[in-house]
């Protein structure tokens, strides 16, 4: 199981994580499969190549969600198979894969109390 290589993020990717140590998919850099840089405004960052916690977090994420680091362009033909299972976020936060992709949740999603649905999909 190959882990994403730690590379510098493009200038447009800069995180501002304050509580997650940049080890959750909330982190824009980690989500892109990259390490944080000095351009980021994160606090207590562990998303750097020198920290073993980064490698452990990446392995855990890949184990629980094998598609977590796949780019949308790599998922052509599989867009419908990518659905969320949000429990508390109401699907209106960045870590909901549907919300993040700019899509409504679908009937295939397993989310709870979803607020990201097009009413005409579910009638």
What tags apply to this protein structure?
CRC, CRC domain-containing protein, Lin-54_fam, 123 residues, mainly alpha, nucleus, 2 domains, Tesmin/TSO1-like_CXC
Task: Describe the model.
With 123 residues, this protein is mostly helical. The chain has 2 domains: 58 residues, no CATH class; 53 residues, no CATH class. The longest helix is centred in the middle third of the chain and has 13 residues.
Give the topology.
Blueprint: H1 28-31, H2 52-64, H3 97-100
Query: Which bin fits the share of residues in helices?
Result: 10-25%
Distance between the first and last residues' Cα: 41 Å
Helix tally? 3
Low-confidence stretches: 7-11, 72-80
Assign an overall shape: elongated
- For the secondary structure, the number of strands is 0
Largest sheet: none
Protein name: CRC domain-containing protein
Subcellular location: Nucleus
Pfam families: TCR (PF03638)
Domain CRC: 11-119
Summarize the structure.
Pfam families: TCR (PF03638). With 123 residues, the chain is mostly helical. The protein has helices at residues 28-31, 52-64, 97-100.
């Amino acid at each position: 199981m190959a882990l994403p290589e730690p590379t510098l993020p493009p200038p447009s990717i800069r995180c501002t994580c304050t509580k997650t140590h940049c080890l959750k998919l909330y982190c824009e850099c980690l989500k892109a499969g990259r390490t944080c840089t000095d351009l980021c405004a994160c606090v207590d960052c562990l998303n750097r190549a020198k920290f073993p916690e980064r490698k452990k977090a990446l392995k855990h994420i890949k184990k629980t969600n094998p598609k977590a680091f796949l780019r949308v362009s790599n998922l052509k033909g599989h867009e419908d198979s990518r659905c969320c299972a949000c429990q508390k976020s109401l699907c209106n936060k960045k870590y909901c894969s549907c919300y993040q992709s700019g899509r409504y949740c679908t009937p295939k999603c397993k989310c709870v109390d979803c607020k990201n649905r097009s009413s005409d999909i579910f009638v």
